[in-house]
Amino acid sequence: MQEIFKNVLEAAKSAAVSIVDVAPVKATAAGALAFATGNHGTALLAFVILILIDLVTKWLSLSSKRLNEMSLEAGLWQSFLGLRAAFRDKYITSEMMKTKFAGKLILYMVLVAAAVHVDVMAGSEGIFLKAAWYYLAGTEFISIAENLRDAGVQSLDPLLNFVRSKLGGMK
């Protein structure tokens, strides 16, 4: 009986040491998971996806510009097929990824953090945060639609005009 107790105690000590050894990693992972599955994490993920879609549609737009300058057909499919050549011919550069993606993400995070603090100061129930989210999402939507239009999807003009009229001419 004493040997069983000794083995259990040794196993418990070994488990405690194992837990403590990786505690910072586990705490970081738990915090990241809690953030990612919470409201702010979900919104951040949605904005990351919107910004990535905006970036890809911007690439399509620049590919279309390249095709137009070469007097080639420049529809959406042709723009997609011309992406590699647009990268090769420096119409699309890695600098764009830094400025378009990282810059927007940082700006959006600062704006959302400020809106959260204004809500706390005002004692409101997230009205400024929601307003910031709607504004940023609307801005990204318009940018994506403009990029697709510039990439050859001309049927988006009526939608863009309608959305702008509802948003008071927002660009």
Care to give the gist of this entry?
The chain is mainly α and 171 residues long. It has helices spanning 2-21, 23-37, 39-69, 76-81, 83-88, 94-122, 127-150, 157-166.
Describe this structure in words.
The chain has helices at residues 2-21, 23-37, 39-69, 76-81, 83-88, 94-122, 127-150, 157-166. The chain is mainly α and 171 residues long. Helix 2 crosses helix 3 and helix 6 (94-122) runs antiparallel to helix 7.
Topology:
Layout lengths: L1 H20 L1 H15 L1 H31 L6 H6 L1 H6 L5 H29 L4 H24 L6 H10 L5
Helix pairs in contact: 2-3, 3-6, 3-7, 6-7, 7-8
Biggest sheet features: none
Portion of residues in beta strands equals under 5%
Rg value: 25 Å
In DSSP terms (H or I, runs of 4 or more residues), the helix count works out at 8
Helix content: over 70%
Q: What is the mean predicted local confidence, pLDDT? A: 82
**Total DSSP E strands:** 0
* Quaternary structure state of the chains depicted: single chain
N-to-C SSE string, H for helix and E for strand: HHHHHHHH
Q: Report the structural category.
A: mainly alpha
Low-confidence spans: pLDDT under 50, at least 5 residues? Answer: none
Distance between the termini: 78 Å
The shape, in one word, is: elongated
Notable characteristics:
single chain; 171 residues; 8 helices; mainly alpha; elongated
